[in-house]
Amino acid sequence: MSLIQFGWLRSYPARRIGQAAITLFGVATFNFWLFRMLPGNPLRVIAREGRLSMEAVESLKIQFGLDGSIWSQYLRYLTKIFRFDTGISFRTRSPVADSIVPALNNTLILVGFSIILIFAIGLAIGITAGWRRGTRTDSVLTLTALTLWSLPTFWVGMILVLVFSIQFGVLPVAGIRSVAGIYSGPFDEAADILRHLILPGVTIALVSVGQIALVMRNSLAEVMDEDYMLAARSRGLRPRVVLWRHGVRNAFLPTFTLMALTLGMLMVGTIQTEAVFSWPGLGLLMFKAVGDRDFPILEASFFVIAVVVVLGTLVADLFYSRLDPRIRST
């Protein structure tokens, strides 16, 4: 190995990639042992019948990878999970990927819609509060952000259903499409999905927007007293130019890092929201799999979420190191 290659291995990106790989290995290990601590026998779910011969039980164990010692199952699981071989679902008897892929797509739709709302509203609140720090506007917006951040997700979801679905009847209660919906074209189907997307997306956004708003507000408030901000004002620049060209641009770095972390947190946080609104994503799939003791579904879903979280954090760190060279020297 050349000195250049060895030097790259010691660089900040290489260290972060190595840390990400170690994290995924730890998550995979925790994933395996966690779900096997759940009470109940998965063979009952597989068999769907209590009376089976010993030969039938052994055959089911071999078919679904439950044979041998727990350590041999663990090694077999590691080999499969890092080859993205997700196995067979205990409940549906079909490949886990057939359930994971459409559920992941639905979750990404929900998370993507929520992120647009979170950052549009959160940045607006944070920039306004930071620019008007110490005023009544700052106090009201900061208190609003703290209040929203403290609200439980499932409670917000139920309140929105009560108001907009039951009381006024303007938005659907649950699901991703109308049960008896007949579409004349793709735009009609997209409009129907959007109507079902509003309540769960707004639920996630309301409980997550406070964090973005507070970080942006505090970052902007800190840079307001920097020398370059005072110099910009002394040159007679318009307040809007000072705010956006000098203030927001320099205060945005911490918020940028939080964006990628928020993606990971939303992937985990959708479990409650999808359960409340019966949104057919990974969260609802995992919620049902816990009751069914469907280990392959749980392991695959948990690992997919972990991969998204770790990759999002890795990308944020690498981009942040490019924007702020001081990070690479640590």
Write up what this structure looks like:
The protein is an all-alpha fold. It contains 13 helices and no strands. Helix 6 packs across helix 9 (186-223). The chain is globular. The two termini are 25 Å apart. The mean pLDDT is 80.
Structural class: mainly alpha
Major sheet summary line: none
What is the β-strand count?
A: 0
Query: Would you list the SSEs in sequence order as H and E?
Result: HHHHHHHHHHHHH
What is the mean predicted local confidence, pLDDT?
Answer: 80
- Radius of gyration (CA) equals 24 Å
Estimate the global geometry from the Cα principal axes. Answer: globular
Q: Which strand-content bin applies to the residues?
A: under 5%
Helix content: over 70%
Tally the helices.
13
Distance between the termini: 25 Å
The poorly predicted ranges are none
Fold blueprint:
Blueprint: H1 3-9, H2 12-35, H3 42-47, H4 54-63, H5 70-81, H6 96-131, H7 136-150, H8 153-167, H9 186-223, H10 227-234, H11 239-277, H12 282-292, H13 295-323
